[in-house]
Amino acid sequence: MVTCHLDSGDTAWVSICVVLVMGMIPSLSIFEAGMLRAKNALSIFMQVFTGLAILSVMWFLFGYSLSFGTTRGGVIGFQVELLAFYDVSVHTCGIHSDNIPNALFALYQMLFAVICPLLMTGAFAERLKFKPYLAFLVLWELLVYYPVAHWIWGGGFLDQMGVLDFAGGIVIHVTAGAGSLVMAFVLKKRHGFEKHHGEVTPHNLGLAILGLALLMMGWFGFNAGGALGSGPTAVNAIVCTQMAPAVSTLVWLFLGWVMNKKPSLVMVMNGALAGFPLWLQSQFWNDKRRCHWLSS
Questions:
Q1: According to CATH, what is the number of the domain 8-230?
Q2: Residue 273: partners with Cβ closer than 8 Å, 6 or more residues away
Q3: If we measure between CA atoms, which residue out of 16, 53, 48 comes closest to residue 32?
Q4: What are the counts of helices (DSSP H) followed by strands (DSSP E) for the chain?
Q5: What residue segments make up the domains of the chain, in order of their start?
Q6: What torsion, rounded to 10 degrees, do the Cα atoms 173, 134, 29, 204 define?
Q7: What is the pTM of this model?
Q8: What is the per-residue pLDDT across 63-111, written as a single tens digit (0 to 9) for each?
Q9: What 3-state DSSP class applies to 92?
């Protein structure tokens, strides 16, 4: 690494994005707790906050090295200097960036690594005991997240092939979505699935929508922080991040209205939440800024 010529504006913006993404993690637990039955609400807080601690320590000790260290055959990374953030300095350049410190880049990526498996908690809420949950969390992070992050962002074989993932559409949303589907099949139906017609009535929609509102705010940092700076790319990501969930919310509103003969708050909330990972991702061709649909 070379000494950075740090840009204070870029450093400040990415620092703000770190705070916004960090806020998404407890917000996720608030949203999911409100959508569950009252007797299981506290379990989701326990899972999310414990996961935040475990996954942060894992990233600090070896996750950053495995994801962004020197590639080993394009499959996984490893770099001794990155273990326990030994050579992750506030005075040297971040990987993929020459304008923010490596320590800030590592912290931003840490929160991606943390929130990714926690997004799956809704798929097995009320159906997985705490010890198996912890084992799943650690194994999934080691066997899925670190390798995929390296493949696409850390110099792995997909990165070498030119695969683009601006803000985690593949590394985070595709892997978490696939993992959620597999867990749903493995754990089978929730108790009382038929009784509730497949959808248990949320115990506190007010709590759920508070969590959703905080998630929506944090997602601007999640997406726009991928620019690793405060320039036009970040601005374009912010605009696109606003429009995608707005359109998705309207689609779900009208679908729910037609299906249920009345508007549904739950459908509106699901529409807003679904819109963020299906965001309008920015691309640049011939110095012209455009937004286009990507199924990220």
A1: 1.10.3430.10
A2: 31, 212, 215, 245
A3: 48
A4: 12, 4
A5: 8-230
A6: 120
A7: 0.85
A8: 999 999 999 988 999 999 899 998 888 888 877 778 899 999 999 999 9
A9: strand
